[in-house]
Amino acid sequence: MLFDKDNQWRFTTIAKRRLETGNLEGDDALISAAMDLHPELDAMWDLGELSATPQEVNGTVVNPFIHTALHVLIEKQLLDKSPPEAVETLNVLTGRGADRHEAVHAIAAVYAELYFTSFRRGQSFEETSYIELLRQLVVSPE
User: Fold this and answer.
1) What values do phi and psi take at 61, rounded to 5?
2) 63-66 long-range Cβ contacts below 8 angstroms, 24+ apart
3) Per-residue confidence in pLDDT tens, the chain, 142 aa
4) Range of the domain at 53
């Protein structure tokens, strides 16, 4: 599972390796690319387990691990075109003038809300609900 303790440590290790070598492949390269989009989080990776707790960054509270993991998850959906509605949503949002990073954040926000609500309720993640929420995102005016 992407949000587990093993991946927390993996992310902190990748953060160090990306600065030392910059030569990463596969999912590690996706994680590194997501980290590159948020240099303001770089100092958080040295915190180890604490990088998976809410931290104040530039006046905003963010969980560096969850934020980066969501980036990776959405990028994988886009690469795999699964669900295809994620790609469609990205295209609509960027077509309306959002930059790609903003659009990925919007998609990730939809995913996170559904995922963590389902998790708190002890329910499984429903991809059909996710797809419907993505459709609503592009229908709603920003």
Assistant:
1) -90, 125
2) 64/38, 65/3, 65/7, 65/8, 65/11, 66/3, 66/112
3) 578 888 899 999 999 999 898 789 999 999 999 999 999 999 999 998 889 999 999 999 999 999 999 999 999 999 999 999 999 999 999 999 999 999 999 999 999 999 999 999 999 999 999 999 999 999 955 5
4) 1-63
Domain count, the chain: 2
Question: For tokens 């998609």, what's the residue?
Answer: 107
* Phi/psi of residue 60, nearest 5 degrees: -120, 140
Sequence-separated (6 or more) residues with CB below 8 Å from residue 124:
118
Asked if 141 and 107 sit in the same domain, the reply is yes
Residue 73 lies in a domain: no
Cα–Cα separations (whole angstroms), residue 9 to 4, 49, 63, 117: 9, 7, 14, 25
